[in-house]
Design brief:
Strand order of the largest sheet: 1-2
GO cellular component, one term: membrane
Subcellular location: Membrane
InterPro entries: Ba3-like_Oxidase_I, Cyt_c_oxase-like_su1_dom, Cyt_c_oxase-like_su1_sf, Cyt_C_Oxase_1, Cyt_c_Oxase_su1_BS
Low-confidence stretches: none
Radius of gyration: 23 Å
CATH superfamily: Cytochrome c oxidase-like, subunit I domain
Protein name: Cytochrome C
CATH topology: Cytochrome C Oxidase, Chain A
Mean pLDDT: 91
Bound molecules: heme-as
CATH class: Mainly Alpha
Largest sheet: 2 strands, antiparallel
Strand content: under 5%
GO molecular function: cytochrome-c oxidase activity; heme binding
Shape: globular
Number of strands: 2
Number of domains: 1
């Protein structure tokens, strides 16, 4: 029976669908984590891999499985559960879409994984041409993207149905946020679908023998930057909506939260050139424009920081916290559902500052293609976002499996986050420092082991290996907690926390749900930022970029 009222508990059938996604996500964590440990040890010169396995092969497994598979499956699972919880049980048709999407993504993942393991697709997670993979790798990725569209369609359909049943009312905040992230994802993935289907697949099948490298990189980064906000926004959903409820506080402002999500939709896409600032063939004026737009996409993160500080401070003061920082002590530090994502938020402060350095044109010349950038995304994605995903897991999985997060597991979860932070401080800190000394990314120790300059980098390589090993321990702990919550924890009820806005009389402006306006503006900004430079790239790409022939 169809229900468009918020459920206190996610419907069992929707819960199964969400859990299926989470199972794949955590299998990905196990495989990707192991590959991460292996590659960091190879990179530091501490390990030689047996059976002809190459550094680039394990690096590809690590990047694809953690950056693309874990994230996409976790996000879809979480968003499906969030929509079912806040907008009511999915219809049978919507749930069917969710399952079709899930199986398409799983099949695609298996195809891509087999090709990487056979060393036929050691092309890293960015799969830049002229690195070429087996056609099945590209087909696998295509299925993952198409599957995510089908799963996303279930979320869009649930939103449309809620609006139809509740005319004139703003949609539930979590559903609204899941919808924005789905729209952002669909618009962004058009770029990667275009390069894979029009360029890379025909090239790998031998149907054409050249590939325009600059066009493919540009299409990739049209997708690649919004990809990072597709990862970030589910963490922001938890920070804005779930955390206030967990601490016993309120959402600072519902409208502010919605506005910040809309700004991400508008500004996250037309900024891909900031990954290509050092590339020839793109007019500097257009790079400048996209740098300016990059600074605009920082604004919704600053709004988020402001809103979170306000929620925490108001809650702490209401509990009797005195003085400038007295409120800080009143936060529930013993609750893993809060503390683990909070550590993620803290790490996002230096991580975001690093992003602003990357985006600053001149400073980008210093850090681009150094391991600084790897340090940046281990602090953003692998700390801020991933610790928040772990924090979500601690209540979502028992909620969906009808179990309880016990005191022991809660304690272990906090220990896990502390281990993670220590490991990441070593690893990401050393990456940032070595990057400033010019250490390159995407290269193994053997490729620069003899260079005199490389001697300077060795202590940092060792620190990375130490950090990587500590992080691996963190992964084992996380998998242990996940398995406990999914299969062994005592039966019981765990809450799916959803916060309320502080001011109940706050009227959410309906123009925030005017999708003709927001999608229209999104398309206009994309056309403005990309049309002329893209035509220019196709017509005047520099030698070595246009028509790259592999053999
Ligand atoms: Fe980035 C490269 C610029 C954010 C991920 N980025 C990457 C790559 C990845 C990545 C994966 O402009 C490498 C791609 C590759 O393989 O080549 N990035 C930015 C900017 C931001 C940013 C301006 N990045 C992210 C996020 C990511 C991510 C988020 C993943 C999830 N990035 C770049 C640029 C490059 C780049 C260049 C290309 C570099 C090159 O040359 O190759 C911004 O969105 C960051 C804004 C963030 C803030 C922080 C707000 C803080 C908050 C926390 C508040 C905390 C509280 C706690 C309230 C302004 C919200 C309370 C605290 C108390 C003390 C009580």
């Amino acid at each position: 029976m169809l229900s468009t009222e918020a459920n206190i508990k996610v419907d069992r059938r929707d819960g199964k669908l969400a859990m299926a996604h989470l199972h794949v996500a955590f299998i990905a964590l196990a495989l990707g984590g192991l590959a991460g440990l292996l590659q960091v040890l190879v990179r530091s010169g501490k390990l030689e891999l047996p059976w002809g396995i190459t550094y680039y092969q394990v690096l590809t497994v690590h990047g694809v499985v953690l950056g693309l598979v874990l994230t996409t499956f976790f996000i879809l699972g979480f968003q499906i559960a969030a929509v079912s919880r806040t907008s009511g049980t999915l219809t049978n048709g919507q749930r069917k879409l969710g399952w079709i999407g899930f199986w398409l993504m799983t099949l695609g993942t298996a195809m891509a994984a087999v090709m990487i393991l056979l060393n036929k697709a050691s092309v890293l997670y960015t799969f830049y041409a002229p690195l070429q993979a087996h056609a099945l790798f590209y087909l696998g990725l295509t299925l993952v993207v198409v599957g995510s569209w089908v799963g996303g369609a279930a979320i869009i359909a649930a939103y449309i149905q809620w609006r139809k049943n509740n005319p004139g009312k703003p949609s539930p905040l979590l559903t609204f946020m899941a919808l924005v992230n789905t729209l952002l994802w669909i618009v962004a993935t058009l770029g990667v679908a275009a390069t894979v289907l029009i360029q890379l697949l025909p090239w790998s099948l031998g149907l054409v023998d050249t590939v325009d490298v600059l066009v493919s990189r540009t299409l990739f980064w049209y997708f690649g930057h919004p990809l990072v906000y597709f990862w970030l926004l589910p963490a922001y959903m938890a920070w804005y909506v779930i955390i206030p409820k967990i601490i016993g506080g309120k959402i600072f402002s519902d409208s502010l939260a919605r506005m910040s999500f809309i700004l991400f939709l508008l500004f996250s896409i037309p900024v891909g050139f900031h990954h290509q600032l050092t590339e020839p063939g793109i007019d500097p004026a257009w790079k400048f424009l996209q740098v300016v737009l990059t600074f605009l996409v920082v604004i919704p993160s600053l709004m988020t920081a402001f809103s979170l500080f306000a929620t925490f401070e108001r809650f702490g003061r209401a509990q009797g916290g005195k003085g400038l920082f007295g409120w800080f002590k009143k936060l529930p530090w013993g609750d893993a559902r809060f503390t683990v994502p909070f550590i993620g938020m803290l790490s996002f402060i230096p991580a975001g500052a690093g992003g602003i350095i990357n985006a600053s044109n001149q400073m980008n010349q210093v850090v681009h293609n150094t391991i600084w950038v790897t340090g940046h995304f281990h602090l953003t994605l692998a700390t801020a976002v991933v610790l928040t995903f772990f924090g979500i897991t601690y209540w979502l999985v028992p909620h969906l499996t009808g179990r309880k997060l016990t005191k022991q597991m809660n304690k272990l979860a906090i220990i896990q986050a502390v281990i993670w932070s220590i490991g990441m401080t070593f690893m990401s800190g050393a990456m940032h420092a070595a990057g400033l000394l010019g250490a390159p990314r995407r290269s193994s120790f053997s490729t620069y082991g003899d260079a005199a300059q490389a001697l300077e980098w060795i202590p940092y390589q060792i620190a990375q290996a130490v950090g990587g090993s500590i992080l691996f321990l963190g992964i084992i702990l996380m998998l242990y907690i996940f398995i406990n919550l999914a299969f062994f924890a005592p039966k019981g009820d765990e809450e799916f926390p959803v916060g309320e806005a502080e001011d109940k009389t706050e009227k959410v402006p309906m123009f925030l749900e005017n999708w003709k306006l927001w999608l229209g503006l999104t398309v206009a900004l994309i056309l403005f930022a990309y049309t002329i430079p893209f035509i220019d790239i196709i017509q005047n790409a520099p030698p070595g970029s246009k028509g790259f022939k592999l053999w």
